[in-house]
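Field reference: sequence -> structure
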Amino acid sequence: MIGRRRAPCWVLAIALVLQHAETLSTTTLTAPKPASTAVQQLGEFNVAQLQEYEGLRGRFDRDKILGFLAKRPWTVAGRLAYVSRVFLDTKNAWESQESLPEDQRTRGAMLNAAMAGLGPVSVKVGQTLSQRPDLVGEEACEALKSLQTKNRPFSNAAALQSVAVEFKLNSTANVAPNIGGLPAKECLFASFSEEPAAAASLGQVYKARTHDNREVAVKVQRPDALRTVAIDYTCFAVVWKLIERWWSFQRKLKGEGPFDNGDIGDVVDTVADGLFDELDYDLEALNADRFRESLDFLGFVDVPTFLPELSTNRVLTTEWIRGAHLEALSVKDGALMTQLAVEACTASLVLTGYVHADPHEGNLMLREDGKVVFLDFGLMSGVDGYIMESFAQGIRACLAEDYESLARAFQDVGFLTTPLQFRENPKQAYELYDTPGGLDQFANELREAMATTEGGTSRFGALAEVLNGKLSKRWKMFTPPYCLLLIRTFLTLEGIAAQVDPDFNIYEMALPFALRRSLAPSSKEGVETLRKSLLTDDDRIKWDALLALIGDEPSEEVIDDGKPKAEADMSAALTAVVGSSSGAALRKAIRDVDAADLAARLVSRSGRDVRRRAALSVAGAMEKALLPRRRKVSHVEEESVVSLNAQSAKGLRRASSPASRRLRHRQKRWQRRVVAHLIRSHVARQIRSGRRGLFALAKLSYLGVRIMVGGMLQFLWVALLRGMERIMPGFPRRPAAA
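Structure field:
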């Protein structure tokens, strides 16, 4: 008999691990009462079997889940055995077809089917890998891409019955007239598609129409999603616990002390926490509204409108988006969507602190009005203010190849231990490396590793490879649990962007938002860092820091507004910050600066570059206001392959919203007011300070006249060239290089 057979030792090990988890001995879980609707089957799903798991629904509770499944070791063992068997079969099949011509291989379809069949956790992994050909190869990526929108669906009968149960309908015939033939007044929807429009990891989407003639998307959760996620999480927790105990035993035998696993257990819990949030459609609706509001200032980001009257915890109804995914877009529109999505996510990371953690191709659409629409808000990530500032510092450091600052950013966010721990080779134990030059040594090794890694200063994936594959062998590092979803976000985005432009530099695209965060710190540490980076202890300007902040020496390569790229980024950041509520630290630094010292610097030889930039800005403003715009064909329109960079971004036409236009108008208005107030306060202070102050005012007045004259001369030169272009088409605006 089954009940008398001897359990294998590995099943007993699983039971032992579960029974000895923290606080599990006192954890109890009562199965919920059966639903009032007398349903025994939801299509192919047994309701009684699934119902006992309903007590786990809600916020992720580690002890409750492990305590519940500790009483079901055979369930966990069976799942582990099945996953292991599928993995080995797929691995063997993949390797067996290595020598076959590509047109004869079927292993891609087998890999896709295997990942889809293993359930939501496996599908999430597959969706991320499908954007990373640099990690798994082109063939595997192509095979996994359909997991983004075309997962293995569950039956339509189960979906219709789920809708009927959730809304307490008499039968599935009451879902829509085309389903059961009943009059429209007796049905929930006016129409309901007979097949799903898309199948995701945790549910599938149907197209429907409401009685007031609105097209909507109805997402129905898989009936077994909760059970599968709970069991898969337990499998991960058990496997990790067994590995941890085995490694601890090995280290004890070698006399190396206890095993320090860092926070891998917390990482597993973080992933599970996100998946449990995805099962709560009420929470998803709230997340969508919060995400839309957080990025409303951009003007080109939107989310589907939620219909609460047609939604429950397991059925979510939103407006139907008229748009297209990346695969259906032209090169031009694909570049637009990718650019906007990257900008939105980087703004989320360093400005708003509320990040979409699942931005794969299936969750991004370009709407007919030119806005990028994000879908699926079950998996989100929050970022604290100080962490946002550290990320902004890291982005700027990557672009500047300032590895000392990048090393400090790693330590601030928790990738590096404090104090540092180091070992000469992987066979040795880590030792404290609390010396003044420790971080400098790490920075030097980081510099060497980045220089020898392809895409080291342009790809986020390359940075992850450097940290995990090279430096972690000598330096003790952790991946903070809060970073896990952020890493997923940017690995996924980078994979999408690489399809449009293989040379895409994610740090360059993130720079404008990183500058804004650097100028608008919210933490005490960030405020102090900003002030120290701009002013000395006696409030004199740090000239080298100022020059580094506005970029390299001006060049002839300019963008639409007549400013060099770095200056354009800084100008936009200053405009957005100086008059905003988050710009208090910047305004205080500007107010406290020693104006006399600044005036002396500006009129000296070292101020030449700053004066030239200012004159170019004046000329650009006059050109924009007084001369007709020159018609230009953007790079996106004239090329079949698009380059995603800061300059091409200017050629992309962005949508805007009334809220974003009002915000920009307020920013400019407050910027003028704040600048006027700061000038008045400095003038008053210089007058009160006597002769030195009056001399400083004279210098600044002379400087202003000089910049205005220089700007006017530059404008006249541009106007003359414009006239020559009209008289002599093809006349070069700038002399050819010698």
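Note: The mean pLDDT is 78.
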